[in-house]
Structure prediction request, 328 residues.
Amino acid sequence: MSALLSDRRAVLLLGLLAVLVVAPLGAGDYLLSILITILLQAYLGMAWNVMMGFAGQFSLGHALYVGLGAYAGGALFVHFGTPPLIGAMAGMLVSAVAGTIIGALGFRFKVMGVYFALLTIAFAEFVRVLFDHWGWVGASSGLFLPVSNRATDDIWMLRGSATMFYYVILGMAALGFAFSRSLLRRRIGYYWQAIREDQEAADALGIDVFRLKMIAVVISASMTSLGGLFIAFYNNNLYPESIFSMHRSIELMLGTIIGGIGTLFGPILGAVVLTALGEILTIAGNAIGIDGIKQIAYGVCLMAILILKPGGLWPWLRQRFGLEGGAR
Prediction:
């Protein structure tokens, strides 16, 4: 039975990957942009899920790591022509240091739950204000990456067509999924789940709670920073007000909450649902011509999902289609 369930999940995963690989062949510019948005939200959701879903540490300031990764890669590229790969390493390092500082302060002084979430917001807001007045990164006027028209894609410098960016974010999402699955199946994944369920009991069993929570924060921050770098090179402009905003932090984690916290497919499903819902309501709102109808309907739909399926959509679908068992 276990082997059958594993086969079903493998078929589902391979089928999804195959569809995504060939999707650009029949997709127009609009659909391609939607697919890029879905994959980006799924990847960022996976990164947040490592910290909250696996280790149970609630962060409301993950936009901090998005912004640090975006500005590290973007500023180095603008000022020195540094390739994005090196910028990505710089962004991961800066984000890891920031995560280490936040985690050390929070965990060492037993700041937990909503208070830890407030601590993450405070750091994100502090950095937003700092970048808003830092001329080297454009301050409030924004940082703009040079765009040149190319007949061919330059993946080394991340300059090229939307199709190239699609395959880049597809690769990031696929690697993020594989990495998350690997973490869940290793000893550290079981330790994290023990901490998430009952930190005091985990500590009593001899689990090094502080060290393991710090590892979760550093991994999550580093992964998130890569998503920020992708945003910088895909959008070609950065503003502190948007990249470090509370709205981005909420948007980043909402898909995982809707799809199912602590699951592998949850961030993917949540990203699909939220992006599709947003686009449908945008079209409907424009057709009706009533201001604010999208925001109202969006909020109502999300509340309905959270009330009817508080554990997320993926656990419900997994149970309904007989995909229970194992790391998922």
Notes: The first helix runs from residue 2 to 22. The radius of gyration is 20 Å. Strands lie at 143-144, 237-238. The chain has a mean pLDDT of 90.
